[in-house]
Write a structure and sequence with these properties.
Keywords: Oxidoreductase
Bound molecules: flavin mononucleotide
GO molecular function: FMN binding; menaquinone-dependent protoporphyrinogen oxidase activity
Shape: globular
Helix content: 40-55%
EC number: 1.3.5.3
Structural class: alpha/beta
Oligomer: single chain
GO biological process, one term: heme biosynthetic process
CATH superfamily: Flavodoxin domain
InterPro entries: Flavodoxin/NO_synth, Flavodoxin_dom, Flavoprotein-like_sf, Protoporphyrinogen_IX_DH
C-alpha cells in the first residue's frame, strides 16, 4: 500500500475529473490517495509516490505546477512519479481539426523539461473538454479557424487503463 499524492491544475474542471477518477482507481487497489490542487498541495516528502496532472493552456503547464515540481524536484527524483496533461490536441486528429498534428505534439514538449529533473515513469496526454464559454471572442474565431469542435472528449477507458498501469507498478515496488 502506497501513500500517493495526486496534484492537479484545472481551470475548467476536466482535469480535476480525470485526477479524481485516477485517485479513486488507485484507492480501489488499496493505496491511500490524497487529491490536492497543485497550488495548495503539501510538499512531496510526506508521500511514497506522486501523480501530477494539468490542463494545457497555450501548450504549457501553469506556473504553479511548474513551481511545485521545481521546488520538490530532489524529493520527486527519489520517488515514482507519473505525469499527465489534458488537452484538446489529444482529440484533434480524431475530430478532424486542422493542424491537428501540431497540437498533438505539445505533450512531449511540455514534459521534456521535467525528464532530467524528476525522471517521471510516464507522461500521458488525455483528451479534454472545451466549450465556447472557455474561450474569448478572438479565441472562438481562432478555434473555428482550425475547425475545432466543442464537447467533452475525455476517454474514460484510456484513463482507466493508465490508472491500472500505475496501480500495478505501485504494487510491484
Ligand atoms: C484559452 C485556451 C487555451 C488552450 N490551449 C490548449 C493547448 O495549447 N493545447 C491543448 O491541447 N489544449 C488546449 N486547450 C484545451 C484545454 O487544455 C482542454 O480544454 C482541457 O480539457 C482543459 O482542462 P481543464 O478543464 O482542466 O482546465 C486550451 C483551451 C483554452 C480555453
Amino acid at each position: 500500500m502506497a501513500v500517493v499524492l495526486m496534484a492537479y491544475a484545472s481551470r475548467n474542471g476536466s482535469t480535476r475529473g480525470i485526477a479524481e477518477r485516477i485517485a479513486a482507481s488507485l484507492d480501489e487497489y488499496g493505496n491511500q490517495v490524497e487529491v490536492h490542487q497543485v497550488g495548495r498541495a503539501p510538499e512531496a516528502g510526506g508521500y511514497d509516490a506522486a501523480v501530477f496532472g494539468c490542463g494545457l493552456y497555450g501548450g504549457a503547464w501553469p506556473t504553479e505546477a511548474q513551481a511545485y515540481v521545481r521546488r520538490n524536484q530532489a524529493t520527486l527524483l527519489r520517488r515514482p512519479v507519473w505525469l499527465f496533461s489534458v488537452g484538446i490536441g489529444a482529440a484533434a486528429v480524431e475530430q478532424g481539426f486542422r493542424f491537428a498534428g501540431m497540437l498533438a505534439g505539445e505533450g512531449p514538449k511540455v514534459v521534456g523539461q521535467f525528464q532530467d529533473t524528476i525522471g517521471p515513469r510516464d507522461h500521458h496526454v488525455f483528451a479534454g473538454a472545451i466549450e465556447p464559454a472557455h474561450l474569448s471572442r478572438v479565441g472562438r474565431l481562432l478555434y473555428r479557424g482550425i475547425r475545432g469542435k466543442y464537447g467533452d472528449f475525455r476517454d474514460w477507458k484510456d484513463v482507466d487503463a493508465w490508472s491500472d498501469t500505475i496501480a500495478r507498478q505501485l504494487a510491484d515496488d
